[in-house]
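Entry 12.
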Amino acid sequence: MSVRAAKRRHLHRIAYGAVQVSNLVYSILLMVATLLSSCELSQTNRSQINVTITADGKTQQVSVPAGSTVTQALQQAGLAPGDLDKSEPPFYTVLSDGDSIKLTRVQEKFETETQTLPFDRQVVRNESLPEGQQRLVQAGVTGQQEVTYRIILEDGVEASKTVVKTVVLQEAVAEIMMVGAQASFAPLPIPGKIAYLAGGNAWIMDTSTANRRLLVNTGDLDGRIFALSPDGGYVLYTRKSKKPADQEINTLWAVSTKSADPNPKWLNAKNVVHFAAWIPNAPYTVAYSTVEPRGTAPGWQANNDLYKVSIGGQPQKILEANSGGVYGWWGMSFAFSPDGRLAYARPDSIGLVSQDGGYLAPLLDITPLQTHSDWAWIPGISWGGDGKTLYFVDHAPASAPVTDEESPYFDLEAASLSNDSTVDLTQQVGMFAYPSASPVRQNGQERAYQVAYLQAIFPDQSETSRYRLIVMDRDGSNRRVIFPSADSTGIEPQTPVWAPQPIQGQSGDFLAIIYQGNLWLVDSGNGQAYQITGDGLISRIDWK
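Predicted 3D structure (tokens):
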């Protein structure tokens, strides 16, 4: 074989081998392509899932890409959820094959309706009527209110209905029925007028305890403020507010005692808790202090301020709001002297108020009482009849280990503004002794007066103890218990009220006191006591 032939055969073999390799590569590529095509087809088949959607009363199946959320599935089905619509499962849920979706259509609408407000029925016991006799004082009148509801509909069916707004169009007027409760108590002639608060209403006795008249019949007097003007022409009082207690506690009013048809007047003042009083020598002008309502105990934060307002006028500020010292959140009290000077009392001191300068001038520090509770003790204060002496209750120290702040002892003292001296009149009277000085009387060559106060039956437990009424001369001498008797239950804490003048035919000056819910008049000279009412409803009194 020639060399050339051999070369040709070798080249032929190489070419044949190349063809074989080429065929093998082709086969492999064909197999890979087939596999890829199969995988792609399989992947295409597995990228879609089927879900069932129920909405608007219809159920349908839709195919959506795997990994879709409820919102995307609804969009695929041509459903547009509203702002209030809801779904089960929630809109953000990622779906799986075979899941079901329930779309609930939610609608909101508002409806307003007028409702009738029923009137209350009040029964007022009146001892000026015979027992059992009834008299309609005020006819009841229904009121009206407009109520707006928010109604939620789910797929057209009402799911909830809530009140969102209430507007009183007309207040209901209570029916007041006066029922006779005439008692066999002998009537007494009285100088001036006695005003009293019974069952949330204001009454007046004029010249005789038998001559009684209803002044205010709203039934909502709260008893925080109740005072006759110096001439007896008006009664100052507070009414419970109709607003929530954390918005408004009460409002301040005055009503004439002379008119046959009393017309109460609001004094443009509210949230008056501790103090309001008629200003001496300022016709029908009132001073008052305010608080800010709170939702937590005790229900307010005191402003420790002072305003004055005349009937029909606008309030004028006398004293700016201030912290009020220790436990100032509770508040301050005040007392006018006969000549118009003003004293203050707060848990840590007593002093005078500069009504022109608008500042406090402290006289004496008081050790504040630690009550371990949500209330604070304020010293009881009262001016002497001549306006030269201030009577007050002082917090006395105790023996160790009891701290001064926790001491259970309280003394009655007098501070002379003439010579800047302080005298301890009597010890351990109790925290609610509440001194009260009588009007000045001419006693021979001397103008004199007496001082009444309450003596705790259990002085070391005076917060809960009942008390007895004590009368003494202005210097603390001639002290005697006048009411009630030693074998009787004591009286509740209150400020005794002196008669403006002696009662004709009686030996001494008289005091008005509330005992077991009834009005009693007590002769300070011989201790003779006269029960005036018997219905047990009286909570406040004043006598001018």
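Annotation: The first strand starts at residue 48 and ends at 55. The chain has two helices and 42 strands.
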